[in-house]
Structure prediction request, 406 residues.
Amino acid sequence: MKKFVVFILVGILLVGTMAIAAKRTLKVLMPIGGGYTIEDQEAIAKEFEKAHPDVDIQMEFVGWGELWNKIITSIGAGAAPDVMYIGSRWIPALADMGAIIPLDKYITPEKKALYYRTVWDTVTYKDHVWGVVRAMSTKAFIYNKALFKKYGVKVPTNWDELLEAAKKIYHPDQGIYGIAMAGKKFVSTVTQFQQYLYANDGRIVDENGKVVINDPKAVKALEFYKELSKYAQPGIIEWKREDLIKLFEAGKVGMFIDHVHNARKAMEKGIDVGFFLIPGGPDSIKRYSTVIVTDCISISSQSKNVDLAIEFLNFMTSFEKQKEWDLKLGFVPPMIKEKDLPEFQKWYWKPYIEAIRYGYPEAVGIKDWEGVQDALLDAIHSVLLGVTDAKTALDQAARIIQILQR
Prediction:
């Protein structure tokens, strides 16, 4: 009798083991922080598993600061996840090293039509699409209506008017500054400068990968950044863009470039907030501009479950999931239909959504974003400190970037 019971138990264990072994496993790497929680991501995985009982989603989570190193380490070890959440600025580097696959053949016309054209631009490299966008931001100027009225300032529509507005509001003896600006050696300082660079039709590299960061359009943008900084808060080189909201919500600055969610914070503090799109520079053919920053879902070239990975990617970036994600975290919606949702009909969302059509990707065609970022930070810093002029600083940055682009 005992032998029979043991036999039955062993049989049950074998069947259970075989059932587990029969499951398809999908490894997914996700970042945590900045509103991204383990609970939210695991909930999506569980929902997918419920609809696919034969699938086991194994999620791994790392902080944003460790994400890039985790990706590179796992690729080098031959143990890359099937699905990776990445900053779209990393696409050129990952594509060139053969770490991710092009997704063109997996993206249906219906899927493509869900997004704005400029959104697809952020994940396109060498005429191929390498990811599907899951999070996006655009920027606009946030301004203090009370200070504009007090000093007789009209809403700027070009760079001359922008500079004039900063000058009129600038009253340092009263603790009031025309504009809040970033100058700290931090990634968001590069993005702040890029707002002016792209607004003047300048680029870091052109469509052929040629370095053009030191051409006249770019030099003029950095010179203007320096000129504006004369009317900004003191100690600009100690300020990150993320901290500028503290000055604005205290009523100390007339305007600055930022996300919509910080504008809403300022409203809650009693600031009468207005918005205007970032004006195009003197060399631009566009009236307005913005840097489009996106994160995306990409598929590893080491994946042995590409079809399943694509299915999960499409699940995560379906209209329903994208809608839930953007509404919960307050991201600018990358899908065209989202603009019709009640939340995105609110007045303060409109400039950020309108800006999408004027946008240019943060890092299109840049092969080593981390290195390029450092070169640009050095250039911006040296100009703000008065160590060198814009042309000399950008010539030096160009020499470094040329090496990185090889």
About this structure: The longest strand covers residues 288-299.
